[in-house]
Write a structure and sequence with these properties.
Layout lengths: L9 E3 L5 E8 L3 E5 L6 E4 L3 E4 L3 E4 L30 H10 L5
Parallel strand pairs: 1-6
Antiparallel strand pairs: 1-2, 2-3, 3-4, 5-6
Length: 102
């Protein structure tokens, strides 16, 4: 990583898509405050350049989902657990209970 990631800086992909702002920064990862979606962490290794105003990533928007993390310390943990209310078996059972089969 060329420069230190600073909270408040705008985060932009290599193809120019603005993702949000840096909410929090640690040595190995930073937290992206993404508008109209869940916030997520990215590893600092995907940073091409960083200043107080802008963080430019080495990855394109189309590749972003492969790099998102739920926390700063476990890159393989992103959305590892399905929230109970979104579990397919629970949704199916709830619909059947209400007489709304698929």
């Amino acid at each position: 990583m060329p420069d230190k990631v600073i909270a408040g800086a705008k985060v932009v992909t290599s193809d120019g898509k603005e993702l949000g702002t840096v909410k929090e920064a640690e040595d190995r990862a930073f937290h992206v405050n993404a508008p109209r979606q869940f916030d997520y962490w990215l590893q600092s290794s995907v940073v091409k350049s960083a200043s107080a105003d802008i963080v430019v990533l080495t990855i394109a928007e189309s590749d972003l989902s492969a790099y998102k993390m739920d926390n700063a310390h476990d890159p393989d943990a992103f959305q590892e657990k399905i929230p109970r209310e979104l579990d397919p078996d629970k949704v199916r059972a709830d619909r059947m209970d209400r007489g709304q089969p698929f």
